[in-house]
Amino acid sequence: MLTLPNSDLWPLIRIALHVGFFLTAFHILKSMLDLRRVTALRHLPRPKRSVRFPLILLASLFTAVLLYQATWQLTGTARPQFIAFMQLHDRRQFNPAHRIQRGRILDHRGEVLAYSQEILGQVYRLYPDGPAFTHVVGYSHPRYGAAGMESVATVQLNGGAPTGVSGWGNLGRQLVTQDKRRRGQDLMLTLDAELQRTAFRLLDGHRGAAVLLRPDDGAVRALVSTPSYDPNRITPALFRDSDAAAPLLNRATQGLYPPGSAFKILLAALAIESGFSGTIDCPAEGFSTSARYRKIRDHEYYTARRGRSVWKGHGPLDLTTALARSSNVFFAQLGVRYGHEALYRLAERMLFNGTILLHETPYGAWTMRTGEIPRLDPSDQYGLAQMSIGQGAVLVTPAHMALIAASIANQGLAARPRLVETDAPTPLRQFVHRATAQRLIPMLRKAVSSGTGRSIDSPLLEIAGKTGTAENPHGASHSWFVGFAPAARPRLAIAVLVEHGGYGSATAAPIARDLLLRAADLGLLE
To answer: CA-CA distance, 234 to 400, in Å (whole number)?
Structure first.
C-alpha cells in the first residue's frame, strides 16, 4: 500500500500537490478580495460589519495556518520536537525523518552497539549483537516506533541536541553544506559489551535477569533480561499478548519477584541497627506465630525428611551464623521481634514502593521499579514473619537488589544507577549506616566462604553475598544470588535471578561467579 510514495514518481507528485495547494489558497484569497471590491461599489449599499469581520477573521486564520504549515515543512528538520514526533508517531516509510543518519550507540569502551547504514537509498538501523542488548539499547523502526535508549535519547541520536564542540561543529557543517541526510550525535553507555554478552549467554535458555553495577558511581556494566528479541527483526507477532515468555518485559528493572533468602540481608541490617546481640534458638520443628498457620522451617528439615532421617535443628544461632546458614526460623523470629514499623522504616529508606530515575530527557525517561512491601494489618504477625524471610507479600526487582548490594559495598551509600557515560555520578540515598555496612560485609563474605554460597567461593574473587531460593506458587522456586566482589575493596555489585531455577546455590550463584570471573578478566575488578 506504500508503493506510490516509494516510486520514482513520488517527488513529482509531491511538487504537484504543493503547487495545487498554493494555487487553491491563492484563488480563495483572490475571491475574497474580489468580493470586497464588489461590495465596495458606490451604487450598492456597504456591507454590514457583521459580514466583513468574519471574512477578515477567516482570511487571517487561513493565512496563519498557511504560514505555520510553511514553517513546519521548511524548518521542521531543525526542530528536535518535530523530528522526534515524526520518528515516534509517523509510521509511513516515506517519512523523511526515517532517513536521518542517527548517531551510534556505544559501550563505555567505544564498541558499537547500534548504528545507521544506507542501503539502496534507504537508511536502516542495525544492531550487531541482536538480542543481547535489546532491553537497554532498544530499537528504532519506521513502522513500530522506538524503545529503550533509542527512544529516550532520540533527540541526541537525531542530532537535535549537539553535545560538545565537535557536535555543534558537525551540525554547523550540515547546515552550511545543506546536507539533507542529517547525522546525529553518538551516545556512549556505561555498559561493558563483553560482560553483557557473557551475561546473556549464561542466561540464554532461562527466564531471568542479571545486573552488574559499580558501587561507587552507579555505572551499570551489564543489564540483561531473558528471553529477549532481535531488534533487527521487529514483526507484529512481537507485540501480541499471547507469548507467555514476555520477551518485551525488562525483567531486570520491571519484573517483581519474591526475593527469598536474599532478603535476609535487609533483616540483618535491621538487627545491627537495632542493637541485636546474642542468639535466637532455632529448633528443628520450626516457628509460627499461631497454631493456625503452617510452621516456618529451615531447608535442612525438609532435606532430612526426604532422606527419612531426623534433623536436630540449629539450636541457638548468632546473627553471622544465621545469615551464613540462611536460617528461616532465625529471621522469621527476628522480624517479629522488631515489628512491622521497623521493617517499613527500613524499606522506606531503601526506596521500596517506588521507582528510581536512571536517565531523563525532555522526550522520555528511563526508570526502574524498586520493590513492594505493603503495609499489613498490625495484628498480622505471621505475614510479617513471612516477609522477614523474603516470602509472602514482599516483591523486588533484580536491579533493586543489585543496588542494595552496591550500597552495602559502598559503606551504606547508594549511588544512583546510570546508563549514560556522560551522566554525572550522584548519590541517591544512605540505605544503611556506615557502621552497619562495615559489619555486614564480613558477614556476607562468610555466607559465601563457609555458608550456603560456598560452592562458588574463590580466593581470587573474594565474593561476598547471599543466595536465595524463593518459593513460587506458580511452579518451581526462583533462584537468586546477590552480592559484590572483591569483599575487601568492592568494584562490582551483582544480582542474578533465574525464574524457576530452584536453589540459589545451584543455579543463580554459579552464573554470578562466572560473570565476576569474566569481569576480572576484563579488568573491571581492579
So the answer is: 29
Q: How far apart are CA 127 and CA 114, in angstroms?
A: 5
Q: Tell me, yes or no, whether 168 and 280 share the same domain.
A: no
What CATH number is given to the structural domain containing 166?
Answer: 3.90.1310.10
DSSP secondary-structure letter at 142?
A: T
pTM higher than 0.90:
no
Cα separation, 244 vs 227, whole angstroms = 11
Rounded to a whole number, what is the distance in angstroms from the first to the last CA of the chain? 57
Total of domains in the chain: 2
Q: Could you say which of 164, 188, 212 is where a domain stops? A: 188
On whether both 121 and 231 belong to a single domain, the answer is no
Q: Which amino acid is at 15?
A: I
- Domain range for 325 is 193-521
- Length of the chain as a residue count: 526
Distance CA 205, CA 212 (A): 20
Interval 436-490: pLDDT, tens: 999 999 999 999 999 999 999 998 899 999 999 999 877 899 999 999 999 999 9
Helix (H/G/I), strand (E/B), else coil: 251:
coil
42: how many CB neighbours lie within 10 A of its CB?
6
> With left for phi above 0 and alpha for psi between -120 and 50, is residue 495 left, alpha or beta?
beta
Residues 113 and 256 in one domain: no
Higher pLDDT, 354 or 44: 354
- In this structure, the answer to whether residues 82 and 136 fall within a common structural domain is yes
Reference 155, options 83, 75, 74, 76; nearest CA is 83
**Residue 18 domain-assigned (yes or no):** no
pLDDT digits (tens, 9 = 90+) for 358-406: 999 887 899 999 999 999 999 999 999 999 999 999 999 999 999 999 9
Nearest Cα residue to 148 out of 101, 114, 116 = 114
Whether residue 48 is contained in a domain is answered as no
CATH number at residue 393: 3.40.710.10
Give pLDDT tens digits for 122-180: 788 999 999 999 999 999 988 888 899 999 998 889 876 555 545 445 544 444 444 55
pLDDT mean across residues, the chain: 86
Looking at the domain assignment, is residue 384 inside a domain?
yes
User: What would the pLDDT profile of 498-508 be if each residue is shown by its tens digit?
Assistant: 999 999 999 99
Q: What is the torsion angle, in degrees rounded to the nearest 10, for the CA atoms of residue 252, residue 256, residue 259 and residue 260?
A: -130
Query: Which regions of 65-163 does DSSP assign to beta strands (E)?
Result: 105-106, 112-119, 122-126, 139-141, 145-147
Residues 247 and 360 in one domain: yes
Q: Which of residues 128, 155, 188 is at a domain's end? A: 188
Q: Are residues 111 and 229 in the same domain?
A: no
Higher pLDDT: 338 or 25? It is: 338
